[in-house]
Structures are given as C-alpha cells and as structure tokens.
Amino acid sequence: MPYCTFQGIQLSRLGMGNMRLPVTGENGDTIDVAKARTIIDQAIAGDINYFDTAYIYHNGQSESFLDQALLSYPRDQYYLADKFNLQADQNYRRQFKTQLERLKTDYIDFYLLHGVSDDSAQTFLDNGCIDYFRSLKKEGRIRYLGFSFHGKPETLEKMVTRAEWDFVQIQLNYYDWYYGTAKRQYEILCEHHLPIMVMEPVHGGMLANIPEEARACLQTVAPSRQPAEWALRFVTALPGVYVVLSGMSTTEQLSQNLCTFETLQPLSTAEKEAIQQACTIIHQSVGVPCTACRYCLNHCPQHLNIPELLQFYNEYHTGGKWRLSRLKAEDPAKLPGNCIACGLCTKHCPQDIKVYQYLHEMDEDYHSLNP
User: Fold this and answer.
1) Which end of the chain is less congested by CB atoms within 10 angstroms, N or C?
2) Rounded CA gap, 248 and 19, in Å?
3) What is the DSSP letter of 287?
C-alpha cells in the first residue's frame, strides 16, 4: 500500500469509506456485522489506515460499528475521519459528544463539516461551529479540521478564504472532471495549497459499469485493466490528492482496489486520451450532450442560464436527487420552473436538445423533494 505524508503522519492512499457497508434485514437497513468486520479486518491487513464515517451513515450505525470493528487494533494504528452533519442536528456540541461516545474515543483525527453546499455554506460559516471545532483542535480532541463539499466553485472559493482548513474533501472522478465542476474545484484547492481527500472516485459505481463502447476504448490501451481501476488511477495521478476514499461493500471490491493501489503508475498520454474518449461515450449514454456552446442563451425570453442548468441536470441525474437541494440557493427567477417551453433554445441548439423537457423534469423532481 502506498502512503502519503500529511503533516508528518503517514496515510494510506486508499481510504475505507463506511457508508456502503454490507447490510441485512428485511429492508436492508442493518449493517451485516459479520461481513462488514471481515472487510475492516482485510483493510487493516492490506495496510489501510484511514477510516471514514459520518453521523448519519447507515442511520447512525456506522460510527458504533466502526468502534467495534477496530476495537482489537491499537488506536495509533489507524486514523478516524468523521463529520458534523448540519441537517441531522444543528447542535454541534451535542453531535460531537455523541460521536465520541459512539466511537468510544477521546479524539477524532480528521473532522469535517459534512456536505457543505451553496445552500448551507453561509450557515456553517455563521453558526459558530467552526470556532467551536477549532477550540477542540487546540484541546487535542480534533487533530485536523476540514470539510466535504458539494456545490459551485464560487462557494468553494468562499469557504477556503473565510476560514483556515487542514484539508478539503471533494467529489472527484474523470466524469465530473470533464462534465462537471471537479476540475475547477481541484484547481481552487491547489491554488490555496490545501490537501485534497477524494470521495466518489468511481462516481458511485457508475464508472465501474460503463457502456461496452467506452470499455472497448479503454481496452485498446490496456486490455486487462478493469473500468474501476481506470477511475482510481485517474484521481491518484493528480498532484495534491492525498487519500482516495472507496465505499467498499464486498471483500472482492476491497481486494481489487488493494491490487490497483499496489501498482499505481502515472498515466501516459495515450491513457489520458483513452479516458477522455471513453468519458465522451459515457456522457452520451447517461446525460444531456450539451457542449456549452451557449448558442441558446441570447434567445431565451426568460434569460435562463441553460448550459448551467443542463450541467446541473447531468450532475443530479448521475449523482442522486438529493443534489437538487442546491437549487434552494439559486435566484428563484433562474430556476428550471421558469421555462415556458417556447422551444427557441432547441431551434438554435446544434445538438437539437429538447431543453424544455429536461428543465420540466428537473422542476418536477425538485418540487417532489420540496413540496
């Protein structure tokens, strides 16, 4: 297992995410402790020492499970990452106390504000939690303070300039690099010299199950390499990336990822080109093929930022409806529901995209979550 040096300590490049542990029960809502402990034991045996959890994972079971799974290992052999979730309980003092109790530990190594978004960023900045967590850091109850992020680059810029951080966790994968805002987010963090922890390197599994045409494109360069390995190698090759999290649900997934990290090498020019070509194919199969040419903008009577809305459609369609909460922070006059389906955008679109159909769908999904 390759390691990186973070403020004088050694972290495994592969981190164990504890959001997608194997489950059991009629509704699949209970962690399968036996299977999950086997995965943790195998992770430790594979020299993984970074374990990520959160207050809400597995309906609050993840933290307590992780305590039990790591109980037989020395506390200085691994590092715990945990998160303050604003939506679950705004009382950050109470939530942190509960987390220490669940984990049965006196301190948390890497502590994050959980899922900072365009809608929640200002609350995180204003509600006093950052100052409180800084005080805990001085006391040694938190070793390193950061945040995980889901939002626009402009919001990320605000977060990193308004407070001091030890690290930041972002969603980073080659799909979001070429068809999302991941590249700009990465650049912002590099500009501010902030270590990057990566979540969703395989885009929630999407990049492990790619269309055959995209798979064939990658196989022309490396016939035996699996799609998930391509995704992991893409992010680990980026300077400034420290730990790459993977929510591994089976021992087979863990074994494959351990093998990938044992043989990490920089990407060649041919490999980078193959990834970009495969990504184009993937995008055509899962999203709206908008190229952001902006030909539509001058013709929209509602003055909607159509390319931005279509990009967001792709992001939530591949990443989950929960991302629609980001729309709460937008100007109400610019929301997809303001589309009047006049068709002028489609008339001027080189791709003949039926924009109003996607905006209507997004508006319906948004209101289903926010009735």
Assistant:
1) C
2) 9
3) S
**Model confidence pLDDT, tens digit, residues 329-355:** 889 999 999 999 999 999 877 677 899
> CA 363 to CA 359: how far, in whole Å?
6
Residue 264 phi/psi, 5° resolution? -65, 135
Query: CA–CA separation, 212 vs 117, rounded Å?
Result: 34
Q: Which residue type sits at 16?
A: M
Rg, Å, the chain Cα set: 21
Whole-angstrom distance, CA of residue 196 vs CA of residue 4? 12
Residue-averaged pLDDT of the chain: 93
Choice among 24-33, 84-93, 331-340 with the minimum mean pLDDT: 24-33
Query: Nearest to residue 322, comparing CAs of 117, 159, 125, 154?
Result: 117
Spatial contact of 82 and 111, defined as CB atoms under 8 Å apart: yes
User: How many Cβ atoms sit within 10 Å of the Cβ of residue 60?
Assistant: 13
Beta bridge partners of residue 145, listed in sequence order:
111
pTM value > 0.90: no
pLDDT of 285 over the 90 cut: no
The three-state secondary structure class of 16 is strand
183 alpha carbon, distance to own chain's centre: 13
Q: What CATH number has the domain spanning 3-276? A: 3.20.20.100
Structural tokens at position 42: 């195998």
Cβ proximity of 14 and 244 under 8 Å: yes
DSSP state of 152: -
pLDDT value of residue 368: 86
